[in-house]
């Protein structure tokens, strides 16, 4: 049997490439050596590496502001190579992964005690865009997953020249300009774009989203994602109200109505900010990546697919990597075997909804999460061998 090995990142544990190599190593140990490695990403962690490597591109480094504002981070960004691209992207295209600058994975991985979603900023994402602009790029792809932020993309826009002015200058830094962080957006009165980088007008920016969530409301950025970035239950409504107010000022000052745009809630609202300030186009991250790496063609030359993800739950059904793979594989009648660090929900129900041949959790429920993440490689290899041993 020929396997197509197509894992996503196991966030905080394994990159897509590391996960693919682990699966391959396990198969080789049980005499399954007919496989093709095809690491994938959905706009979240691993997107940069996946696209650059798939097109024989190259990486660059930039020292930018991290999510904690006071600490710089060395962030990678990429240049697509000469691989055949189906999306119109060529070697004149830069790739940015927002998590490199403003993600929970910044600084080698934030500890939960360091999470500060109220004040975390996307300023470094704007600095990466500037780095790409300075290098002459006018086509930019931005992967939006894995953020530590909930600032609506205002930090990114601020780095690009926008100013966010408060209702009162009393107590505000820099005159009446608001400090970075989503918590301050409730005091936003006016957005000044007079000094926004002029080069953005000639840019084609594509924002890759792994979710379809809107900016505000029960399915918005704050209520859906802020808790996993450190927000308390009592802070969710405050953050949501701040983003709702921000959306109203965007509509008033910039004539941009982004509050209900699918994907506008991605990366703590960065999707909304990229549309409003950079005229970005939000697209499905998994579809963009799968088209770029010619996934459909690879599917036709395999008997089955092995994939993996850090967590599989109801959110997986809406734009995540495994859901995108499942739709493609079903078209070609290829069975999918999925492995997850954790399965949250009814396993059989999720397996059925995702049209999977099998679904496996690689770690016992009783194993603490930090221990499971630390041993993800071994756990994944053991479960692969257990599943596919003749």
Characterize the structure shown.
The protein is an alpha/beta fold and 390 residues long. The chain has 2 domains: 133 residues, Rossmann fold, CATH 3.40.50.10350; 240 residues, Glycerate kinase, domain 2 (Alpha-Beta Complex), CATH 3.90.1510. The protein has 14 helices and 13 strands. The strands form 3 sheets. A 6-stranded mixed sheet has the order 3-4-5-6-9-10, sandwiched between helices. The chain has a 5-stranded parallel sheet with strand order 2-1-11-12-13, sandwiched between helices. Strand 11, helix 11 and strand 12 form a beta-alpha-beta unit. Helix 1 crosses helix 14. It is globular and about 70 Å long.
Descriptive key words:
alpha/beta, single chain, globular, six-stranded mixed sheet, five-stranded parallel sheet, Glycerate kinase, domain 2, Rossmann fold, 390 residues
Layout of SSEs?
Blueprint: E1 3-5, H1 16-29, E2 35-37, H2 47-54, E3 58-65, E4 72-79, E5 93-97, H3 98-102, H4 123-134, E6 139-143, H5 154-159, E7 163-166, E8 188-192, E9 204-209, H6 221-225, H7 233-254, H8 266-278, E10 281-284, H9 285-292, H10 295-299, E11 304-312, H11 321-331, E12 336-343, H12 347-353, E13 358-361, H13 369-374, H14 376-388
Parallel strand pairs: 1-2, 1-11, 5-6, 6-9, 9-10, 11-12, 12-13
Antiparallel strand pairs: 3-4, 4-5, 7-8
Helix pairs in contact: 1-14
Strands of the widest sheet, in order across it, are: 3-4-5-6-9-10
Name of the CATH class of the largest domain? Alpha Beta
Q: Kindly provide the radius of gyration, computed on alpha-carbon positions and rounded to a whole number of angstroms.
A: 21 Å
Count every helix, treating DSSP H or I runs of 4 or more residues as helices: 14
Give start-end ranges of low-pLDDT stretches: 83-89, 168-173
Please bin the fraction of helical residues.
25-40%
CATH architecture of the largest domain: Alpha-Beta Complex
Mean pLDDT, rounded to whole units? 92
Number of strands: 13
Oligomer: single chain
């Amino acid at each position: 049997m020929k396997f197509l090995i197509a894992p996503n990142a196991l966030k905080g544990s394994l990159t897509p490439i590391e996960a693919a190599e682990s699966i391959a190593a396990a198969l080789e140990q049980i005499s399954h050596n007919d496989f093709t490695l095809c690491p994938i990403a959905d706009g979240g962690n691993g997107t940069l590496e996946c696209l650059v490597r798939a097109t024989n591109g190259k990486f660059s480094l930039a020292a930018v502001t991290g999510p904690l504002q006071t600490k710089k981070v060395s962030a990678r960004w990429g240049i697509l190579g000469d691989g055949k691209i189906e999306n119109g992207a060529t070697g004149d295209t830069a790739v940015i992964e927002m998590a490199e600058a403003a993600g929970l994975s910044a600084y080698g991985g934030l500890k939960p005690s360091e999470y500060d979603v109220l004040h975390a900023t996307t300023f470094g994402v704007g600095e990466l865009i500037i780095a790409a602009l300075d290098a002459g790029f006018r086509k930019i792809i931005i992967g939006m997953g894995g953020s530590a932020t909930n600032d609506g993309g205002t930090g990114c826009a601020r780095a690009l020249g926008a100013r966010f002015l408060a209702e009162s200058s009393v107590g505000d830094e820099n005159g009446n300009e608001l400090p970075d962080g989503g918590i301050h957006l409730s005091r936003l009165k006016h957005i000044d774009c007079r000094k926004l980088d002029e080069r953005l007008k000639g840019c084609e920016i594509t924002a890759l989203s792994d979710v379809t969530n809107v900016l505000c409301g029960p399915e918005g950025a704050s209520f859906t994602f802020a808790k996993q970035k450190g927000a308390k239950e009592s802070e969710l409504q405050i953050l949501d109200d701040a983003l709702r107010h921000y959306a109203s000022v965007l509509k008033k000052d910039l004539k941009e109505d982004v509050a209900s745009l699918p994907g506008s809630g991605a990366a703590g609202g960065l999707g909304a900010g990229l549309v409003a300030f950079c005229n970005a186009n939000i697209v499905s991250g998994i579809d963009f990546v799968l088209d770029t790496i010619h996934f459909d063609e690879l599917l036709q030359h395999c008997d089955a697919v092995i994939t993996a993800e850090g967590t599989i739950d109801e959110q997986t059904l809406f734009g995540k990597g495994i859901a995108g793979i499942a739709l493609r594989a079903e078209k070609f009648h290829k069975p999918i075997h999925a492995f997850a660090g954790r399965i949250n929900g009814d396993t059989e129900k999720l397996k059925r909804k995702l049209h999977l041949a099998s679904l496996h959790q690689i770690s016992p429920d009783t194993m603490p999460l930090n221990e499971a993440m630390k041993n993800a490689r071994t756990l994944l290899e053991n479960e692969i061998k257990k599943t596919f041993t003749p």
